């Protein structure tokens, strides 16, 4: 089934680390792009500082499983990047063919990340690989920081999600979070769980009613649940308890704006989608 073309349908951009090219990153990104009826764009991010450092006399390579040091220079580093780039392009092509996607491959540098942010459109989707404690070069800064600049959703993408895991939305009155959560629940074939947050009993009651009405009016299968927690660790524990595969956080909202996205990512295995201020 194709996505509703009124919602985030243009491009899914996935940032790739040349040091850790993994086919699973492409598969997860391609699945998302297919569900959103989007073009898949890979951003292969090179670190020019790393190339320059390779030419320093004090820089050596320590091969895995070896005791000695190997010589390293900028030329060798560039060749290694080219090999990784070739593998990444091949994996992207394979994943795009399996999911019948239009795709493109771009090579950029960490220093050009700001330019990449400037080229993003509201209907785009920026995916940052984050699994087994590592992140792509472009995403070493918090996803929340990228979301402040990007006009589109920014996703900290995990590869270990299972079909049917709930898609959770932290709801504080912004309907755009519910709309995106519903779309992602459809993409992943998952139930929608609306986590109603707010300061005080009156706000919780009002938003719980709003969420219920929205679910009924939109014909969305889902449930609303109150969240009294306000901190990243407590939210993370709740996401683990409900076994959420993905959570949508809105930075415009009070609780969503205060959450430490990096801390949340460390605590939960769920993918995290951050809606910024734009």
Q: How would you portray this structure in words?
A:
- With 278 residues, the protein is of the alpha/beta class.
- The chain has 2 domains: 11-157, Rossmann fold; 167-275, Rossmann fold (3-Layer(aba) Sandwich), CATH 3.40.50.
- The protein has helices at 23-35, 48-54, 74-99, 113-119, 143-149, 175-188, 201-218, 232-241, 254-258, 261-267; strands at 11-16, 39-46, 103-109, 125-131, 134-135, 154-157, 167-171, 192-197, 222-227, 246-250, 271-275.
- Strands 1, 2, 3, 4, 5, 6, 7, 8, 9, 10 and 11 form an 11-stranded mixed beta sheet that branches.
- Strand 1, helix 1 (23-35) and strand 2 (39-46) form a beta-alpha-beta unit.
- Helix 2 (48-54) runs antiparallel to helix 3.
- The relative contact order is 0.15.
- Residues 1-8 and 131-135 have low confidence and may be disordered.
Return the string of H and E elements: EHEHHEHEEHEEHEHEHEHHE
Secondary structure: helix percent: 40-55%
Q: What are the segments in which pLDDT stays under 50 over at least 5 consecutive residues?
A: 1-8, 131-135
Number of strands: 11
**Could you name the CATH class of the largest domain?**
Alpha Beta
Any idea what the shape is? elongated
Portion of residues in beta strands equals 15-25%
Q: Domain count, please report it.
A: 2
Feature tags:
278 residues, alpha/beta, Rossmann fold, 2 domains, eleven-stranded mixed β-sheet, 10 helices, 41% helix, elongated
Structure summary:
With 278 residues, the chain is of the alpha/beta class.
Task: Indicate the topology.
Elements: E1 11-16, H1 23-35, E2 39-46, H2 48-54, H3 74-99, E3 103-109, H4 113-119, E4 125-131, E5 134-135, H5 143-149, E6 154-157, E7 167-171, H6 175-188, E8 192-197, H7 201-218, E9 222-227, H8 232-241, E10 246-250, H9 254-258, H10 261-267, E11 271-275
Parallel strand pairs: 1-2, 1-4, 2-3, 4-6, 7-8, 7-10, 8-9, 10-11
Antiparallel strand pairs: 4-5, 6-11
